[in-house]
Design brief:
The structure is a single chain. This protein has 297 residues and is α/β, with parallel strands linked by helices. The chain has one domain: 3-Layer(aba) Sandwich (Rossmann fold). The protein is 43% helix and 11% strand. Helix 4 runs parallel beside helix 5 and helix 5 packs parallel to helix 7. The chain binds 2-acetamido-2-deoxy-beta-D-glucopyranose.
């Protein structure tokens, strides 16, 4: 459940919107409670720089690189985010790159009672990033890359509902969950936009992106008829490796620092994003509300 990118191809847009509705079925994990001990997929939603050298769980067998380590992080718990950050700050003197890559489309609430999609896709990453900022600044030039999705185009942030219900909206049917996913992706884009402003005098830059249409394990729990229905679209999907290219571009490409705050797609900045992705007031409001939700203000 690490990559949950919604399907979008420019020329198939309206067709795919219909398909996406079905996709919301596919993308839902089994409604089992996240088991922190056993759900290893959920425990590694953040990509930690290979610079990290201390070790809780060695994963060099899988990667062939003994510099890669795995630390537990449950983004559905702000408490877990805090202890993860404490752990990282205690054991690692540098942080060069943070890739906010986790996403889900599940119902339910986070540990602190936020809607699951808002809490994980936005708020957990928000707190994670903010708590790591000083270390990122001290390690500059450094970067924060946040994987959004073209789904942001269907997103809208209802601040009243967020304030009163700690969720984007009421209701958790599949279509509502899909919309909440889009709202959370708009949050990712606005978060990056605001973060860039706040980082103007630092050597930290940040980018959000649409990773493309990616075939991942996301549909593994789907029913057979959904898999059949989905098969034609599946042929158009790229594999996870090609799907990581825009993320890698934002993380590694030299000379894009002046594009901090931008939204990338196909390894290039998209300069004509929708106005709602450049709404200064909404970006600021989202930041401040997130701070207050996290007890930072
Ligand atoms: C940014 O990096 C440059 C070059 O390494 C350095 O001279 C400058 O002090 C840094 N600025 C900040 C705000 O850290």
């Amino acid at each position: 459940m690490v990559l949950t990118q919604v399907l979008f191809l420019p020329s198939y847009h309206s067709v795919l919107f219909t398909y996406m509705w079905f996709f919301t079925f596919l993308s839902r994990c089994k409604k089992e409670k996240i088991n922190k001990e056993q759900d290893t997929e959920h425990s590694s939603p953040v990509s930690v720089s290979p610079v990290l050298t201390s070790s809780l769980v060695p994963c060099d067998q899988e990667t062939g690189n003994n510099q890669v380590i795995l630390l537990q992080l449950d983004l559905a718990s702000l408490k877990s985010v805090r202890s993860f950050v404490e752990n990282v700050l205690r054991t690692e003197s540098r942080l060069d790159l943070l890739i906010n890559n986790a996403g889900l489309m599940n119902d339910g609430k986070t540990q602190e009672g936020f809607g699951m999609i808002f809490g994980v896709n936005h708020l957990g990453h928000f707190l994670l990033t903010v708590l790591l900022l000083d270390r990122l600044k001290a390690s500059g030039p450094s970067r924060v890359v946040t994987v959004a999705s073209r789904g942001y185009e269907y997103g809208k942030i209802d601040f009243n509902c967020l304030t009163t219900h700690r969720d984007f909206a009421l209701g958790d049917n599949d279509y509502q969950l899909f919309l909440k996913y889009c709202h959370s992706k708009l949050c990712n884009v606005l978060f990056t936009y605001e973060l860039a402003k706040r980082l103007q005098d630092s050597n930290v830059t940040c980018y959000s992106l649409h990773p493309g249409v990616i075939k991942t394990e996301i549909g593994r729990n789907a029913k057979l008829w959904m898999k059949i229905l989905f098969a034609p679209v599946s042929l158009l999907l790229t594999d996870a490796e090609s799907g990581a290219q825009t993320t890698l571009h934002c993380a590694l490409e030299q000379g894009i620092e002046h594009l901090s705050g931008h939204y990338f797609t196909h390894c290039a900045p998209l300069l004509n994003v929708m106005p709602k992705a450049r709404d200064d007031a909404a970006a600021k409001k989202l930041w401040e509300l997130s701070e207050s939700f996290c007890g930072l203000s």
